[in-house]
Amino acid sequence: MRAGPMKQTLLSLSNLTKQFGGKTVLDSLDLDIYDGEFITLLGPSGCGKTTLLRLIAGFEQPDCGSISLSGVDLTGTPPEGRPLNTVFQHYALFPHMSVFDNVAYGLKMEKRPPDEIRDRVEEALAMVQLQDYARRKPQQLSGGQQQRVAIARAVVKRPRLLLLDEPLSALDYKLRRTMQVELKRLQRELGITFVFVTHDQEEALSMSDRVVVLKDGVVQQLGTPREVYERPANLFTARFVGETNFFPGNVDAVNDGDIIVDVFGLKRTLRKPDFELHPGQAVHVLLRPEDIRVLEPTDEQGLAGRIVERNYKGSTLDSVIHLDDGTEVLASEFFDEDDPAFDYRLGEPVRVSWVDGWEWLLPEESSNASVGSLTDDV
Amino acid sequence: MPASGVSPTMSSIRQQPFGAAVLVLVWGWLLFLVLAPNLLVVGASVMTRDPGSFLSLPLNLDAYRQLMDPLYLDVFLHSLYMAAVTTLACLLIGYPFAWALSKVEKRRQLLLIFFLIVPFWTNSLVRTYALKLILATNGLINSALLSLGWIDEPVRMLYTEGAVIIGLVYLLLPFMILPLYSVFDDLREELVMASHDLGAGRFATFLHVIVPLTLPGVLAGVMLVLLPAMGLFFVPDILGGSRNLLVGNVIKNQFLDARNWPFGAAASIVLTLTMAVLMLAHRISKQRIGEEGSA
Q1: C or N: which end of chain A has fewer Cβ atoms within 10 Å?
Q2: Considering the domain B61-294 in this protein, what is its CATH number?
């Protein structure tokens, strides 16, 4: 864990278990959420992230385990009694009420005086730049505007915790990016803890303080976006978060500070990982596309292959290389300003290497049979 | 396009003979079977009663004046009262029924709706006679109660106001349930969750979210029940005896027995206008929750 100011736990989940029709959706999950952080629950559909959110909000009851907020047990409290609010995936704005009445709803339920309601609603609408739309009906607004109303409606009650259930999934790409920045800004300004659910790993990495990677109701990894991306805890996380090349490696020798691994006959000296190793053991050498270097075919080091695909991406050149044994490698290289001839022809022979120290090692997982797939198209 | 000299409508009609035929059929239907008969009724209501040829000149508003007669006003009000009780009963049964129906697993829903519709395959007159057999002095209910020893002599149920209302509720309940089911089916669970999330309890959520969003269905159901409930003349004929008349009975009697066509026509126009007012209310409530904009 990164060193930093003392983090105070706001929401504490312990041993949470939930089953639906005999299928375990969440399996004795423990998680502490810190006050003021932006934490993302990331995972493929069916991983339990939405169920977890619904348990926190109180729409579902856990089969066992407990949820507590600042030390107060919330497990049996109905949703209306919990000091937290939700931004729903499809906004869930009340169609029979104006934007103003939608935002005012929560305050009216608290029986606040009308003056206070008006001021706070106007303030919340100004925060999401919708003060001129108070009289409109939700269906007269665009998707992005409806999203902002939903956020205003949730934060106007000044909750301790805001739950966001894939709030950007219905928006187009450009609007998504704008809303991501806006959500980050709101979170900083309001100082509310955000629990954000998404299946989009890019969104998770760019927005969060911490990411919880979930699969089959079990936490696969909990860490900063950087930890999750650069040091995945297992093959699932490695494959789900970003694109990854997996090279099969075989440990040749284990020394004090480093090890020698044989990758396709190429012997490389690598940093010693923090799991137990012995000579002869099989490991996975994980390399992100940007760790890969494509070299001239005459180069002495590296693995021989040829270019089978090249994609110009603006700032990077992404290429697919087939090694001589058929293994597919993804490479993503930044343009070199000094090298105008930086480009490849299809079929061109090259050699593939990687930047020393940028690899990540994982032990062989016996339970995982589908290690052969190199790319991840989630 | 070849039809450069022809107006777009003309050319499209020539190119789509099937579409044109359908249009003619629909408009013809509306003209001859809806507009013309209604105009005839309006015409009849302002003419004078004639024993020989049913109607004659001069034009006057005597029929409407006659409707104000306390005797008919009583019939109208009593009919309205019975129809209102019927509607209320249908609403009280139909609302929770439709709500529960919308919560059932989707495949079962279709089966349950099918069961709801099956009775329509039997003529409603036949079903009303069946009800008569159940409610009669020596009918099913009385025999059952007598043999159980719960009562000593048959309870009088037939030829009462209650029997008419039971008959009307029985015949009209599906017309309340179906539009209500439709609005409950459209009611997104997320909205109910959002309401709870914002601090509203069950009752507040019902009052502020569920009722307003299902109101168009309530009004549609009320429309489909209240007006037929004033017109289904055969129900009082079979179950109600002579005192529990509906406006429908008055209209039928004026045309077939009393031979007072202007008066019957005026009564049916008042009934139609009542319906128009209800439809207007339904439209306004739909606009208020903004469904008109997306439809």
Answers
A1: N
A2: 1.10.3720.10
